[in-house]
Structure formats: structure tokens, C-alpha cells
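Let's practice the habit of predicting before peeking. Look at the sequence and jot down your guess about where helices and strands might fall. Then scroll down.
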Amino acid sequence: MSSPFVINIGRQLGSGGREIGKHLAEHFNIAYYDKEILSLAAQESGLRQGLFERSDEKKGFFHSIFHVVQPFFGGGGDFYDNQLSEENLFIIQSRVIQRIASERSCVFIGRVADYILREHPRHVNIFITANLDDRIRRVAQRRNVLPKAAQSIIEEADEERATYYNFYSSGTWGAADTYDLCVNSSLLGIEDTVAFIANFIEQLGFTQE
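Done guessing? Here is the structure:
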């Protein structure tokens, strides 16, 4: 049996990234993790899930007076220290992502998983974008808001994701040289974009036995 492989997906809001990730997980018959990471991190740390939700892919949203007392991936000590900060919440989520990726093949949506798993022997990093009109349409329908409000939501979400990603990783959110493949889902549509990405991944030799 082959060792686990992971598909890490970064995405612009409204690009269809989550839907594409779910379809890829189904195609390869592997696990899918999005907000599930938050509940797992809460369970393993004993902290309230709301803490992880409030700081989810947002840097500076959760303000803490405490200092980080452990390096991000350093050894020694108890990393579930009583000190509470955005950085420690990131550490906890990172450990959950690393553990899951070592145990099974899966798709991760966002949460800097591509950087966290940069040493994983079998990983592929994908970024999904889409034309702004398509993104506005999707967000307006999903949130039941007018297009102008949808565009504001998109701009705020993209800024938060970029700030979060750029702080915790050595790459640049959405920049082509940070990923293995960047795809505009507007060009082929969701279904054919899934097929295109799946073929790309299969060409790399990543398949589920």
C-alpha cells in the first residue's frame, strides 16, 4: 500500500475552491478537511471551538495579551501551555494537520496547510481563483446579499486570508510561485476544473490504492 498523499487547496472566496476540494476527495476516495480541523483542534487541546473559529484564517482578529512561549514547531515542553494567543492556536491546528497527513491521504482546504506540510513527502499545492463576476455571483447567492455587498465580503475575506497566510508561511498568498498549480475555475467550470486538477495530480503519481 502506498504512503499517504495530501492535496492542499488555497482559494479566493467565491472561486469554488471548497466544492472543487470536495469533488477531488470523492474522486480519489480520500478524506476531506475544512472547518473540521477547528473542531479537532478544540477536542485535542481542550479549548473552546469558538476560539479557533474566531481566529480562523484571520490574523489580528483575536487579540491576546499573552506571549508565545514555544517556537512554532519546536520540541520540548507542553505546547498546550496555558498561554493563549493566535500563534498558539495556529500551533495546535498545525499539529492536528500534521498528524492527519501522516495517517491518511486527504484534501486540506486553506489554513496554511501547504506550508505546514512542506516537508510531507507526497503533497501537491493548488490555488483556485475565478473571475470576479463569477465570485460575486456565488457569494451573493450563498449569503443572500446584493452583488455590491458580496463584493465587499469578497474583498475583506481575501485580505484576511492573505494577511494570515503571509504571516505564517514563507510564501505569498495567491502568487503563482508559491503553488504547484494555479487554476481559474471560470475557464472550465467546476466539473471540468476538477477533472483537470485530478489529471494533473495523477500525472504526479498520486493515487489512492
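How did you do? Confidence is low (pLDDT under 50) at residues 62-83.
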